[in-house]
């Protein structure tokens, strides 16, 4: 099963993608996580991406497309995958389509998690991310067992640099102008499914399972 996740920053793409990946036994590929891991490891790609990310802007398409096209051709993607945070622009969607056509594959589902902007701004201030493994939590909706400590790896939780309110606003602006057009793009391909992302995490997951027929 080949799935892409659409939705505004903070809509819950990462939260749901992780659960779907576990349930379906396919890899969860998050371009945001890939960039954050590169920043943490001090790579050249990380250095290039950081400036854009900190400002809430998109990293240029040419730094993203090859990376993803390469990743989805690795052995663990044979049964499918979930792309979280890619594609994010029409050129990225076209690059993906072209790459898939070349290897005789196509996407099965584009899941759009719908959450209003006001809702997002409230949500983001409560998100905490693990510096060690990248797991995400929420101080109210998905707290860790011990405050400030990752349940999975025991490392420290932080508020992501780009989750400051002014940067979240910029990310929302970028989302509306550059990413939202993908909804019509995938509707035209007949693979779009919309989910109400303001429900509880469990209910959102339940709705997604129904759509996937799992
Ligand atoms: P990325 O990491 O992809 O960030 P994003 O799209 O802004 O999305 P988030 O990860 O912030 O939100 P999410 O939807 O995953 O929500 P989550 O599940 O965490 O990208 C970061 C940056 O990298 C970009 O700004 C860009 O610069 C660059 N980048 C990445 N990909 C790129 C690309 N393809 N092209 C160019 N640049 C790219 O949930 C949010 C919070 O809400 C959490 O605390 C969670 O616990 C909580 N929550 C989740 N669901 C619920 C619920 N149902 N009810 C209550 N709380 C909930
Ligand atoms: Mg995410
Ligand atoms: Zn961790």
Written account of the structure:
- It is a single chain.
- α2 crosses α3.
- The relative contact order is 0.19.
- The strands form two sheets. Strands 2-3-1-4-8 form a five-stranded parallel β-sheet, sandwiched between helices. The protein has a three-stranded antiparallel β-sheet with strand order 6-5-7, with no helix packed on it.
- Helix content is about 45%, strand content about 15%.
- β5 and β6 form a beta hairpin.
- By secondary structure, it is of the alpha/beta class.
- It has nine helices and eight strands.
- The mean pLDDT is about 95.
- Bound molecules: BIS(adenosine)-5'-pentaphosphate, magnesium ion and zinc ion.
- The site of magnesium ion (MG) has 4 residues, from α1.
- The site of magnesium ion has 4 residues, from α1.
Gross morphology is globular
Beta strand %: 15-25%
Q: How much is the radius of gyration in Å?
A: 16 Å
Which bin fits the share of residues in helices?
40-55%
Output the structural class: alpha/beta
Q: For the terminal residues, how far apart are their CA atoms?
A: 11 Å
Structural key phrases:
47% helix; binds BIS(adenosine)-5'-pentaphosphate; globular; single chain; binds magnesium ion; 9 helices; 214 residues; alpha/beta; 8 strands; three-stranded antiparallel sheet; binds zinc ion
């Amino acid at each position: 099963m080949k799935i892409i996740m659409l939705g505004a920053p903070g809509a819950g793409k990462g939260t749901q993608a992780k659960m779907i990946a576990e349930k379906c036994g396919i890899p969860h590929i998050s371009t945001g996580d890939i960039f954050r891991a590169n920043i943490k490891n001090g790579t050249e790609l990380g250095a290039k991406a950081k400036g854009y990310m900190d400002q809430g802007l998109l990293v240029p398409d040419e730094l993203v497309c090859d990376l993803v096209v390469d990743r989805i051709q690795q052995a663990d993607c044979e049964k499918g995958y979930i792309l979280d945070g890619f594609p994010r622009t029409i050129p990225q969607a076209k690059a993906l389509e072209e790459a898939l056509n070349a290897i005789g594959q196509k996407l099965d589902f584009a899941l759009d998690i719908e959450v209003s902007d006001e809702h997002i701004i409230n949500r983001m201030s409560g998100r905490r991310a693990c510096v060690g493994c990248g797991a995400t939590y929420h101080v109210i909706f998905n707290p860790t067992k011990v405050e400030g400590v990752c349940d999975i790896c025991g490392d420290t939780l932080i508020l992501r640099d780009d989750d400051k309110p002014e940067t979240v606003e910029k990310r929302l602006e970028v989302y509306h102008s550059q990413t939202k057009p993908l909804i019509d793009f995938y509707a035209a391909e007949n693979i779009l499914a919309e989910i109400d992302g303001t429900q509880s995490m469990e209910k959102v997951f339940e709705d997604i399972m129904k759509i996937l027929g799992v």
